[in-house]
C-alpha cells in the first residue's frame, strides 16, 4: 500500500545561485561562492521527482497559435511617471514583478506610495508585510500620505493563510514585502532558503496568472549586490527591477534588467525626501546642477538610456604615481573601457600615461556602458593629464576604435536636442554622424574623424 507522504531526501543547496548537490562543498561548483552550501530537505514524489511545480495551465488541450484567444488587458498606472516608464507604461493585470535593492534604499516606501495611488483610483490593494507589524506600516503610511480605505494591510508570513485572504479580498494589486520572509508550511526548510523562495514564488505566480492579480514581490540583495536566493526566481517573474544608489545619497535609480512587457533600457530617477520618493523627470538638470566649471578633467557627455537622453558629467583625475604598477580606479564606468582608452591615447595621441594614477568617476551615481562615451572619456583623461580645461559649453560623444578613429553612434538627434535644451553651444561628434545628420539646430556641430582631432576641438589650450 502506497503512503500518501512524499519521499524526502537531504541535499546541500547554494543560497546564492540555487545549485544543489548530494554532498557538501566548501566552494559552490555553480557560482564559486564560499560557505554557501546549506543542508535542506527536498520533497520527492513517488517517481523520485522534485515537488516543485511551475505550471499555470488551466488543463486545456494544445491549440494552433492563431486560434488562441487574447484578452484585452488594460494597464493601470502606479502614480509615478518614472516607474511607469520603466515598467513599459504601466502595470499589466496578472503580471509578476520583482523589485530588489539594498536595505534602506526605499523599496518599501516606493511600493507603499504605489499602493496608495492605485487604491485612490478605486482598486483594491493588499499589502502583505512579513518584516513589520501592521502598526509600523500605518505609521509609515501616515508619513507618506498613503492612508487610503481601499489599501488593506496584512502582517503574515504563512503563504497558505495569505492565499486565503487573497481569495476573500480579491485585490487588484498584491504586494509581498518581502519574498524572503514568506514560507509554505509543508516545506521543512527555513524561510528565505532556496527551496522556500523558489516554491513560494512559483505559488504566487499561479495565483497572479490564475486570478489576474498584479503582484509585486520585494526582494533583498546580497552584499555583492546580486539577488538573494536562486537565479531561478528571476526566470519565474515577468519583470525584474533593481533599485540602485547609495542609501546616504538622496538620489535613486530604478533599472529594469528583465521585462516581458517593455524595454529593459529605460531608467527611472527618484529623489528621497521626507515625504517619500519623488520623481525626477529632468535628469540632465539634476546631474549638472553642481558641476564645477573651469576644472580640468570635467567633460559633459550625452548618453541615452532607452528612449531617454541624459547629460552627465564625466570626471577624470590623472596624476603622477609613486606606485608600480600605477593605480586605475573607475566609478560608473567599466575599468576595462578606461584601460582601452588609455592605451589608445598612449599609442595614437602620444600621451604618455603609463606612469600615472588614473581615477574616473561619473557624477550623480549613474552607470555608463554605451560605446558613445568613448570620445568624452578620452577628452576627460587628456584634459586632466595636460591640466587644461575642456570648454564648459561643449558636449562630446562618439565611439573610439583601437586605431584612434572616431566611429558613428546611434540616436544622434536625441543627444543634440537634449544639449540644446540645456543651453550648450557646441557639440563634438563623429564626422560620420555629421554627414548623415539632418537635424536643424543652432548649436555648432564639429565632426571629427580621429581621437586627436577630438582632443584639439574640445580642450582649451
Tell me what you see in this structure.
- This protein has 461 residues and is α/β, with parallel strands linked by helices.
- It has three domains: 7-44; 75-280, Rossmann fold (3-Layer(aba) Sandwich); 286-458, Ribosomal Protein S5, domain 2 (2-Layer Sandwich).
- Helices cover 27% and strands 26% of the residues.
- It has a nine-stranded mixed beta sheet, sandwiched between helices. Strands 13-14-16-15 form a four-stranded mixed beta sheet.
- Helix 8 crosses helix 9 (374-386).
- The longest helix has 18 residues, at 194-211.
- The chain is globular.
- The protein starts with 6 loop residues before the first strand and ends with a helix.
- Residues 1-6 and 44-49 have low confidence and may be disordered.
Amino acid at each position: 500500500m502506497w503512503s500518501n507522504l512524499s519521499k524526502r531526501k537531504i541535499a546541500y543547496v547554494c543560497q546564492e545561485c540555487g545549485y544543489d548537490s548530494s554532498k557538501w562543498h566548501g566552494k559552490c561548483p555553480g557560482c564559486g561562492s564560499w560557505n554557501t552550501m546549506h543542508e535542506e530537505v527536498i520533497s520527492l514524489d513517488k517517481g523520485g521527482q522534485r515537488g516543485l511545480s511551475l505550471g499555470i495551465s488551466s488543463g486545456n488541450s494544445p491549440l494552433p497559435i492563431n486560434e488562441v484567444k487574447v484578452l484585452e488587458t488594460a494597464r493601470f498606472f502606479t502614480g509615478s511617471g518614472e516607474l511607469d516608464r520603466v515598467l513599459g507604461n504601466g502595470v499589466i493585470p496578472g503580471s509578476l514583478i520583482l523589485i530588489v535593492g539594498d536595505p534602506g534604499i526605499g523599496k518599501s516606501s516606493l511600493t507603499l506610495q504605489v499602493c496608495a495611488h492605485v487604491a485612490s483610483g478605486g482598486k483594491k490593494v493588499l499589502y502583505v508585510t512579513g518584516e513589520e507589524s501592521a502598526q509600523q506600516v500605518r505609521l509609515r503610511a501616515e508619513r507618506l500620505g498613503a492612508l487610503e480605505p481601499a489599501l488593506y494591510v496584512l502582517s503574515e508570513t504563512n503563504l497558505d493563510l495569505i492565499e486565503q485572504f487573497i481569495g476573500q479580498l480579491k485585490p487588484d494589486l498584491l504586494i509581498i514585502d518581502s519574498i524572503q520572509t514568506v514560507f509554505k508550511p509543508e516545506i521543512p526548510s527555513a524561510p528565505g532558503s532556496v527551496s522556500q523562495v523558489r516554491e513560494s514564488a512559483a505559488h504566487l505566480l499561479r495565483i497572479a496568472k490564475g486570478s489576474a492579480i498584479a503582484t509585486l514581490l520585494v526582494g533583498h540583495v546580497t552584499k555583492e549586490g546580486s539577488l538573494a536566493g536562486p537565479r531561478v526566481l528571476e526566470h519565474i517573474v515577468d519583470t525584474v527591477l533593481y533599485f540602485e544608489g547609495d542609501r546616504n545619497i538622496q538620489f535613486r535609480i530604478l533599472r529594469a534588467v528583465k521585462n516581458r512587457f517593455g524595454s529593459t533600457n529605460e531608467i527611472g530617477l527618484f529623489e528621497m525626501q521626507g515625504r517619500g520618493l519623488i520623481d525626477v523627470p529632468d535628469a540632465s538638470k539634476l546631474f549638472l546642477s553642481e558641476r564645477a566649471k573651469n576644472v580640468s578633467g570635467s567633460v559633459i557627455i550625452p548618453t541615452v538610456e532607452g528612449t531617454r537622453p541624459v547629460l552627465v558629467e564625466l570626471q577624470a583625475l590623472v596624476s603622477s604615481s609613486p606606485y608600480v604598477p600605477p593605480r586605475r580606479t573607475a566609478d560608473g564606468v567599466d575599468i576595462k573601457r578606461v584601460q582601452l582608452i588609455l592605451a589608445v591615447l598612449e599609442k595614437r595621441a602620444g600621451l604618455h600615461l603609463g606612469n600615472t594614477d588614473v581615477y574616473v568617476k561619473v557624477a550623480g551615481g549613474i552607470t555608463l556602458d554605451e560605446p558613445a562615451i568613448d570620445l568624452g572619456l578620452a577628452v576627460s583623461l587628456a584634459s586632466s593629464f595636460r591640466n587644461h580645461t575642456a570648454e564648459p559649453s561643449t558636449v562630446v560623444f562618439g565611439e573610439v576604435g583601437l586605431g584612434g578613429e572616431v566611429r558613428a553612434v546611434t540616436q544622434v538627434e536625441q543627444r543634440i536636442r537634449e544639449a540644446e535644451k540645456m543651453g550648450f553651444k557646441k557639440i563634438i561628434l563623429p564626422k560620420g554622424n555629421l554627414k548623415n545628420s539632418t537635424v536643424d539646430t543652432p548649436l555648432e556641430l564639429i565632426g571629427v574623424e580621429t581621437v586627436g582631432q577630438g582632443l584639439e576641438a574640445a580642450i582649451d589650450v
